[in-house]
Design a protein that fits this description.
The complex is a heterodimer of chains A (214) and B (633). By secondary structure, chain A is α+β, with helices and mostly antiparallel strands. Chain A has one domain: C8orf32 fold (Roll). Chain A is built from seven helices and seven strands, in the order αααβααβαβββββα. In chain A, α2 packs antiparallel against α5 and α3 packs antiparallel against α6. The N terminus of chain A is likely disordered. Chain B has 633 residues and is of the alpha/beta class. Chain B is built from 21 helices and 19 strands. Classes of the chains: A alpha+beta (214), B alpha/beta (633). At the A-B interface, β7 of A face α1, β3 and β4 of B.
Amino acid sequence: MSALPGTLLLRSGCFAILLFMLFQAYTSFGELNDTSSQLINQWKSLLSDPKHSSDLEKLASANNFFNDNIRFTTDMAAWNVKDYWATPLETLKLRQGDCEDFSIAKYITLLKMNVSVDKLRLVYVKAILPTGQTQAHMVLAYYPSLHAEPFILDNLNLNILPASKRRDLIPIYSFNSEGLWIGQDRNPKIKRAETRLSNWREVMLRMKTEGIYD
Amino acid sequence: MSLSKQLWLYIVLLMFAAFIGSFLVSCYSAKYYLEELLYQKNNDTVSSMALTLSNNAHDPVSMELFINAQFDSGHYDWIRLVGVDNQVIAERTAQNVVNAAPNWFTNFFAIETQPGVAQISSGWQQVGTLKLASTVQFAYKELWATVKRLFYYFFAMGLVSCITGSLLLKFITKPLNKAVSQAEAIGERRFITADEPKTKEFKAVIRSMNKLSAHVKSMLEDETSKLEKLRQSIQTDEITGLLNREPMLGHLRSFLQREDIKARGLLLTLRIDDLFGLNQSEGRANVDSLLKRFATTLQGIALKHNGFAGRLNGSDLLILLPECDENSVRGDSVLASLHRDCKDLNIANVKILGSSTTYQSGENVSQLLTRLDSVLESSGSDDTAPFIHVTSAPLKIREDIAWNTILDDAITNRNFVLQLFPVYSSSDELIHFEAPVRLVQQGQELMRAGIFMPHVSRLKLADKLDLIVLQLAIEEISKNQQAIGINVSASLLLNSHAMVEFVSIIKAHPNEAELLWLEIPEYGAFQNMENFAILCRMLEPLKCKIGIEHVAKEFSRIGELHDLGLDYIKIDNSLIHNINNTMAVQVFLRGLCTIVHSIGLKAIAEGVETQEEWNSLKELGVDGGTGEFFPRD
């Protein structure tokens, strides 16, 4: 399966966003010295934190956890490939990721926190930067109800805002993991897969082998 | 189960297993491949459709049109667009799907395609979910075609393997068949030797069986030579080595009962006049050496004509020369050669009287001896005619018959019948009927073979008569389903064409062949051992029984019969007559039976006349008997 159509746009856009993010990383990432395993443990405890009662509390926790702990970077810097969709564990281990990694990590985290898959969408958006430039970007959208206006979880704007408050984002295409067929093989060898899978399916498969997603 | 069948079964099973294996492997891998491929196609299509729909008009008519266009121009099973509140906005499903493969196959290899699913949105607003599945019939079609191709391939390969395998097996087991037939032959006590094959394993088997055969052969040679010595010691005169009176007359008696050409011949008697006086004048030792000389001379004549020479008493010598008459062996020349012997030993004044007569089937011994005796004295009284030939007056008339006309007619019109004489086993069960041939002449009683056979032989009609006799026997067998034994003339062995024809007649009657017993006279078999062996080999697969009749002389050569596949021998009447009173011959017969049994043959006694003879024969180990003692029905 070929990559989703927006990916190419996204890839080039990520680099520009990086510069902006570097600044934020120095100011807000207070736990840079923590080891990766500590961070993963924190993430695990976050998943089962009993104090989250509403979806909005879960959204806030997940959004803040990743925005605070993960440094924005490019796939080239992190993985030495042009485009790589990392699983949450990979992202946490590296403590860095690009916009897709943030979105995927938040998406999985929310699913793990029992937020219905119907309410979540990964959205390719055209982001209008403060400079006036437009960049390809990805965010996570949360729909409180099917017809409602979604809340946007973003790593550019750290606050969770309703879509109408995000005039800087123009949605292009949305998707989630509903109906996604990962395959019958319980232990697929992704890295050596001879047939190329879509980035989305591949990352889901890797999560499956990691045991995060099933 | 034969090796070949096992191989076929093995190949069929192997091919079947390989076919099932390939079938499953290729079908399952194709199935997984196709499932993945179809999913990717579904997913790609649904994604690009959703992307297009997300960025276009969202009124239901436009979306339905879009889906219709996609469905009609593409290869889909179904496309469904469901709104956010789960109501169907547009749906298309393929109609009239033609199955490309049989139902059982599509059920067994169900290709479970995952539908492609994608979300459609309008700006931030969700519009619905698009799902679609591509058609799988092409996949089934391909898969089914593959399976069929596989099947044909394996079927052809299986067939080819079976055929080449059989040929190979045939090649490999050729020596095995040899070993098997040798082993079977040994099982039937035919101790044959076979050529050693190249295959190592079979070579060892055949070699050891050959050793066994060789061992048996040498054992047989030992035993038969012992037996021959025994026979000589009991049957021959110490001084001359000629047969004693009893065995000599036994041979004569047997010849007179014969049904073949030997039933006619010349009998020649020589008497040394005043042997007592000669002993006194020349000294006993000299006379003995003269007698030995005479014996050598007479024995030579007898051997030359397949006859016997015997010493009836001190001074009377008898030569029995079958198939001869007064012209072929001249009495006066025999006498002359004896006189030469006298001269050689410097013994003068030896007066030898001689007479001869022809004998014919049906005459009796004492008549013949009286006839010879009656002229012997008169031959001595007249020095000018020291040798007299007497013809048998009562039978003289037979000489006048135009034999060639009669026999030609008889053979053309098949004027022959078989007369049946029962042969009983030692447990008094019927073994078969001995069936000598009889000539049918209008207004006359049946003529014994002993009368006409010498003429048949002289006129060289024996081969033809053999074929007629065989046909008569086959007719008799198919009529009564009873085993019939027929005499086969010795001259058949000399004519390979007749032999082949003879065998082919038997081959044409496989059912009757099993009940057919063929008997060749001893002299015929041993004189033409090679041809006899060929005949035996030709007859072997036909399951008829083969035997040698009138066995009286060639005991020392019985060992040679061990690998011919014979079934029985018939012991000549000369050994059977008065057996209950002849202890020495009993010893000999017991030994003979033992040897004969050891090579798997049955011993049948000829010319049993009394209950006493039969009792003692059974005791000696004889397996069966025939003769006057056994009534015809």
